[in-house]
Structure formats: C-alpha cells, structure tokens
Design brief:
Layout: E1 14-16, E2 26-28, H1 31-40, E3 48-52, E4 58-66, E5 71-80, E6 88-92, H2 97-110, E7 114-119, H3 130-144, E8 151-152, E9 156-157, H4 158-164, E10 170-174, H5 183-186, E11 192-196, H6 204-211, E12 216-219, H7 228-243
Helix pairs in contact: 2-3, 2-7
Bound molecules: S-adenosylmethionine.
Length: 247
C-alpha cells in the first residue's frame, strides 16, 4: 500500500528570514532569495516554501507575489515548533579560512548552540569574518532542517575567554598531550563547552592556564593526532552521542 507522502514534503525549499514570523503574516524576501526561488528554482505564485526565523519554529508559506526582483510570501501555518537543542558550545582556535568555514558548516549541522572563536598564541587566522561565518551557518541550517541558528561570538583571546567564562558550564578540554578521559566517561548532559586548539596546538603555558581553570575536564579523542577542525567535530559528535540529542 503506497504510503501517503508527508506534507509538506521535506524537499520543499527552506529559507531563513530575519523578519519575525507569525500566523497569517506576509514576508518579503531579499533579492538573493527572490532570485533563487524565481530564477533558479523557477517557482511562481502559489508555490510552497518553508521558512524559519530562528525563534518561532518553521512555517509553511505560499508565494503570493512574484516580480523580477521582488517576491512576497504569505504564511499558511506553523509546521514545526522551534527545536530544543543541547546546550553545547564549541570554542575553537580559528584555522585557515576554508577549514574554518567547513568547521562552522559541520558544527551547525551537528547541532551546536554557540560557536566561540578563541585566539591563541599559535592561531594562524588573523581575521575572522563573522558575517561570512554567519552566512555559512544560515545555509547549513536551511539544509539540515534546523529552526534555530547557532550564536557566533566575536573572537576573544584565550586568557580573556578563560577569565570571563561561567565556571558552572563544564569546560571539556580536548587535549592530545595529556591522558584525558574518553568521551563516554567525560561528557555529561549540558551545559557544556568544548575547547579545541589550533593546528600547532596550545603552548605549554596555555595548557597550564586551561588546566588550572575551574570545572575543566580533559578529554582524549583517541590515540591519533587529529587536525584541529577534525578534532572539533569529533568532539561535538561524541558529545551528541553520549550526552546530546543523538541518545
Ligand atoms: N599539538 C599538536 C602539534 O603540535 O602538532 C597538534 C595539535 S592538533 C592538530 C589541534 C588540536 O586538536 C589540539 O590542540 C587538540 O585540542 C585537538 N586534538 C587533536 N587530536 C586530539 C586527540 N587525540 N585528543 C584530544 N584532542 C585532540
């Protein structure tokens, strides 16, 4: 017996909009989005699209007006409430641009709640483009079905980061140099903060500073030295498995 296909189908385009969404509201898309639906996907008046605003969940909308560079959508109904994600944050030392972009995209897919770029002595990246990383997180959320976006903080120096963090949030320090606990023993349900170092690793002084901070748990990600972006995602995936929403 053919099953009745789910409505709305998962294949409907999903777009993030900055406007607050509500019952019977109308939303004007930005030029890039209007071009994408109108000219790339060749969608016209009456076609359905899924929208989310990062707070109120996901909504089914219908194209009500379609012009060359302008498109207005009318909201029909809410299809999903805003997701509840594990309160897990990822602090990472920015690496080269392509790798940092990849890290942000994948961490968004994995369900991270907050991304904190931390500048360390051996951090190679001089500049972190928050607008660019924000756009990458939006695209990843549109594709993976998220209804909330991860927060992305301004870059901060390691010492200020440690001095300013709330000790109640356990800091899981991915440390390849010291026998940390395996993830299944270390990770506990949130609030959690995972810290991963730069490609060149933390200096000895930085590692002492981290280990001497309150409520820090060293975590081992196995016997091999992982690249920084790999370590960040491996730690996040392990956290989701052991203490997050993959359980
Ligand atoms: N210190 C190394 C060096 O001198 O080449 C490598 C640093 S590693 C490429 C980058 C970061 O990934 C480390 O600072 C650590 O946070 C994390 N990492 C890599 N492999 C790890 C492992 N097996 N266990 C825990 N953390 C690891």
């Amino acid at each position: 017996m053919p099953t009745v296909p789910a409505w709305p189908p998962k294949s409907l385009p999903r777009l993030f909009v900055r406007a607050a969404l509500a019952e019977a509201a109308t939303v004007e898309l930005d030029v890039r989005q209007a071009n994408y639906l109108g000219n790339v996907l060749r969608m016209g008046i009456g076609a359905n699209v899924l929208l989310f605003d990062g707070n109120s969940g996901e909504w089914l909308a219908r194209i009500a007006e379609a012009g060359k560079k302008r498109m207005v959508l009318a909201l029909e109904r809410r299809t999903r409430d805003a997701e509840t994600i594990p309160d897990v944050w990822l602090a990472f030392a920015p690496v080269k641009r392509a790798q940092t972009d990849w890290l942000v995209e994948k961490a968004t897919e994995l369900g991270v709640a907050r991304l904190l770029p931390v500048m360390t002595e051996r951090t190679v990246a001089e500049r972190v483009r928050l607008d660019r990383l924000g756009a990458i997180a939006v695209e990843a959320a549109e594709q993976c079905g998220r209804t909330r976006l991860p927060a992305i903080d301004e870059p901060i120096a390691l010492a200020r980061f440690l001095a300013g963090r709330e000790a109640a949030r356990t800091l899981y320090f991915a440390d390849e140099m010291r026998d940390g606990q395996p993830p299944q023993a270390a990770f506990k349900p949130a609030p959690a903060l995972i810290l991963v170092g730069p490609e060149g690793g933390f200096t000895e002084a930085e590692r002492e500073l981290i280990h001497s901070a309150a409520n820090v748990i060293p975590v081992s990600l196995g016997p091999r030295i992982l690249r920084a972006e790999t370590a960040a995602l491996a730690a996040l995936a392990a956290y989701m498995t052991v203490a997050g929403d993959w359980r």
